[in-house]
Amino acid sequence: MKQLCNIIAPLILFCLMTAGMSAFAQVQSGVAPQEQTEAVSQVQSGTAPQTQSEVTLQEQKENTVDVKGIVFGHIGDSYEWHITTWGKTQIIIPLPIIVYSEASGWHTFLSSRLEENGGTYEGLSIAPAGSKYEGKLVEYNAAGDEVRPWDISITKVTFALLFNSFLLLVIILCVAHWYRKRPRGSLAPGGFIGFMEMFIMMVNDDIIKSCVGPNYRKFAPYLLTAFFFIFVNNIMGLIPFFPGGANVTGNIAITMVLAVCTFLMVNIFGTKHYWKDIFWPDVPWWLKVPVPMMPFIEFFGIFTKPFALMIRLFANMLAGHMAMLVLTCLIFISASMGPALNGTLTVASVLFNIFMNALELLVAFIQAYVFTMLSAVFIGLAQEGAKVKENK
């Protein structure tokens, strides 16, 4: 197949998310407010040891599950890849930080240097919560204000994007190598190669050919690439362990680039009939002069179409990840509500997580399908009146 050199093929992987977190117990204080206030003041002044109530309050605070931190820590980007926590030891893969500062020039180091040096290294540190650049690398000028350097670091999402792209490249080159070794008209492939041919032809015939129209061969490489790129990144995002689990397609920067690519394909290769319908559509004259109402609406639609593609993919994949994480955290939030309620919610949470993982596997395909289909429809609308070129 000639188009195999221009497309990316999927790798089907599915693994149910598991969590290993310790439950926590809530202990009632039983200390009068006055006694508690006096005890706290004594501890703060250093004149008395901690009371049982203070120890209990401290344990409760330490054992509280930070749902917000877990959810946004997973779906957000970071300068390191947190694998797991084994006891009190955190297993983390440091990632390379590459920044350029107008004041001090280039800086290249591993993110572990920040932790080793108290959160600051070579004048750079990660902005704290509530800051304008929260979670990003910043430096401070003479006035003490945060200054954002030019940051091209290999973050978690960037690393996952590069890894997934490399994986896709390996798969498609292996498939292309099989076809290159065999003459045209030989026996049909089987196994994984046969599955890939079936998958590719399904996307090509059912989506691209039917939506773009007679000139579909010209745009098939891009649309096939977009489909399998989204699909594989969606599948990899469902794997709960390294190198999977990164929320690549739930990052709006990624979906924005995909939408911009479709925007360029639509408008660069649009025919004169397409542009004529934009600026002078076939509607009653009073909708075009003296106020160009319809031309303005049509021109505005040029930008709303890719915007809809960007938001649709981003929101659906982000919501799925958040739902599964919240359902998992529900087990540990309910640990203090008694064994009966906690056991019931645990069973419900596990069952819902299994259902959500199965649903997300379906959504991974549907979102790639919808993005490719809408892109093909937009491209097909822009090909009105185009001459068909035979591509043998």
From TrEMBL:
<keyword id="KW-0813">Transport</keyword>
<keyword id="KW-0732">Signal</keyword>
<comment type="similarity">
    <text>Belongs to the ATPase A chain family.</text>
</comment>
<feature type="transmembrane region" description="Helical">
    <location>
        <begin position="223"/>
        <end position="242"/>
    </location>
</feature>
<feature type="compositionally biased region" description="Polar residues">
    <location>
        <begin position="38"/>
        <end position="58"/>
    </location>
</feature>
<dbReference type="GO" id="GO:0046933">
    <property type="term" value="F:proton-transporting ATP synthase activity, rotational mechanism"/>
</dbReference>
<keyword id="KW-1003">Cell membrane</keyword>
<feature type="transmembrane region" description="Helical">
    <location>
        <begin position="254"/>
        <end position="275"/>
    </location>
</feature>
<comment type="function">
    <text>Key component of the proton channel; it plays a direct role in the translocation of protons across the membrane.</text>
</comment>
<protein>
    <recommendedName>
        <fullName>ATP synthase subunit a</fullName>
    </recommendedName>
</protein>
<feature type="transmembrane region" description="Helical">
    <location>
        <begin position="186"/>
        <end position="203"/>
    </location>
</feature>
<dbReference type="InterPro" id="IPR045083">
    <property type="entry name" value="ATP_synth_F0_asu_bact/mt"/>
</dbReference>
<dbReference type="GO" id="GO:0005886">
    <property type="term" value="C:plasma membrane"/>
</dbReference>
<feature type="transmembrane region" description="Helical">
    <location>
        <begin position="322"/>
        <end position="341"/>
    </location>
</feature>
<dbReference type="GO" id="GO:0045259">
    <property type="term" value="C:proton-transporting ATP synthase complex"/>
</dbReference>
<keyword id="KW-0066">ATP synthesis</keyword>
<feature type="signal peptide">
    <location>
        <begin position="1"/>
        <end position="25"/>
    </location>
</feature>
<keyword id="KW-0375">Hydrogen ion transport</keyword>
<feature type="transmembrane region" description="Helical">
    <location>
        <begin position="157"/>
        <end position="179"/>
    </location>
</feature>
<dbReference type="Pfam" id="PF00119">
    <property type="entry name" value="ATP-synt_A"/>
</dbReference>
<keyword id="KW-1133">Transmembrane helix</keyword>
<dbReference type="InterPro" id="IPR000568">
    <property type="entry name" value="ATP_synth_F0_asu"/>
</dbReference>
<keyword id="KW-0472">Membrane</keyword>
<feature type="transmembrane region" description="Helical">
    <location>
        <begin position="361"/>
        <end position="382"/>
    </location>
</feature>
<dbReference type="InterPro" id="IPR035908">
    <property type="entry name" value="F0_ATP_A_sf"/>
</dbReference>
<feature type="transmembrane region" description="Helical">
    <location>
        <begin position="295"/>
        <end position="315"/>
    </location>
</feature>
<feature type="region of interest" description="Disordered">
    <location>
        <begin position="38"/>
        <end position="59"/>
    </location>
</feature>
<keyword id="KW-0812">Transmembrane</keyword>
<keyword id="KW-0138">CF(0)</keyword>
<keyword id="KW-0406">Ion transport</keyword>
